[in-house]
Amino acid sequence: LDVINYHAFEKTDYPLILCIEIQCSISQQELVAQLLVEKFGEKLFLHYILLTKDINTNSDKNRSLPSPNDLRGKIIIKSKKLPPCFPNENNKEYGEIIDDADCYEVTRRRSRKESNSKKHRKLSRAFSDLVCLLRSAPFEDFNTAFNEQQSDQICTFSENAGLRLATSDAEEFINYNKRFISRVTPGTWRVDSSNLNPQDFWNVGCQMG
Fold this sequence. Notes:
By secondary structure, the protein is of the alpha/beta class.
């Protein structure tokens, strides 16, 4: 974290996004949240607040995201987040979220039986509160996304899935990326740590790779 804090804006002051997969215990999650706040201080972006009380409603789906210029010098946490309406029963400092994969290639491969048996895991409220702009969400299809996805939700596509959509549904993918932020991860077959060609995804408007 010290290295990130020191070098984050050495070359440019445009925002830095940290994609964090949090799989540890509640006490460790709280420690991670504490360290992020302590190390990054005012650089940590914490000001984007959803107006909706329920992430399943559509009233906020068309709300615009801040522009990169608005976020200069800021570090943004991308991860899972508790629903805004999650009840704080007995003053619990954690809640439960559905432990679904947010990568489209993974969710696409699941059978109907597997997708219907939802698993849950605990998420610290302290860590969840740091996810203010890019909330991880699974991708089903473009029609569902246009009707249900909110502006602060970000979907992840594997390299293979992204290429497939960029080839078969290029126009819809472009329209999708006009409204939402998408992230493409290198294929699991890249065992030599080679990089994907970002141009294939930039052509349809994908912002993160």
